[in-house]
From TrEMBL:
Signal recorded as keyword: yes
Species for this entry: Roseomonas indoligenes
Stated name of the protein: Uncharacterized protein
Classification via PROSITE patterns: PROKAR_LIPOPROTEIN
Keywords attached to this entry: Signal
Signal peptide bounds: 1-20
Length: 183
């Protein structure tokens, strides 16, 4: 017995791979390769932040919170209309409540895009991550909300930039971190 396919059936079968790709979240015809990423790193001198009770002499007994940036999640995408790279960051923090107990603290941090070759800051922004201590909890972890940074220009040049992240510190806090050294 001879079987014959109708043209409509052949067309439907030939479209199956394209339809399957749509279910995976992409159009086969317009997919681009994965975007390159600049180097994203924590700034060593600014990963620690120790806050003291306002107006008190900095002392072990006046510590409200001792926080540390422990990680970053970063994802890179091409910016719309070939405008550069979009870098999406999420900051991860651990914190310990001090003797001058608090229930929550807003911890400001800085994100800077630098030109490593020339050693200059091209752009910077700030955000905060909130740590909250429940009940008698002494330690906690938190992560910031997603922050998107656009690095404009040629994608290849944008990928050569460096994105640095650290707590926004006063000169005294920075000096204390440098004296204490890495933990």
């Amino acid at each position: 017995m001879t079987r014959s396919f109708r043209p409509a059936a052949l067309l439907a079968l030939s479209l199956l791979p394209l339809l399957a790709a749509c279910g995976r979240g992409g159009d086969v015809l317009s997919q681009r390769p994965r975007a390159p990423c600049p180097r994203v790193a924590l700034l060593a001198d600014a990963v620690d932040l120790t806050r003291y009770r306002a107006g008190a002499v900095p002392d072990v007994g006046t510590v409200e919170v001792d926080a540390r940036m422990v990680g970053l999640q970063a994802r890179c995408d091409y910016a719309p209309r070939e405008a550069g790279l979009d870098v999406t960051l999420v900051v991860q923090v651990t914190a310990e409540r001090g003797p001058a107990a608090i229930r929550a603290a807003d911890l400001p941090y800085v994100v800077a895009v630098t030109d490593e070759a020339e050693g200059r800051i091209l752009n910077r922004g700030t955000d905060t991550v909130t740590v909250t201590f429940a009940g008698n909890e002494r330690r906690t972890a938190a992560q910031g909300e997603q922050m998107m940074i656009r690095i404009p220009g040629d994608v290849r040049r944008a990928a050569e930039r460096v994105v640095l992240v650290g707590f926004q510190l006063t000169p005294e806090e920075l000096a204390a971190n440098r004296r204490r050294g890495a933990r």
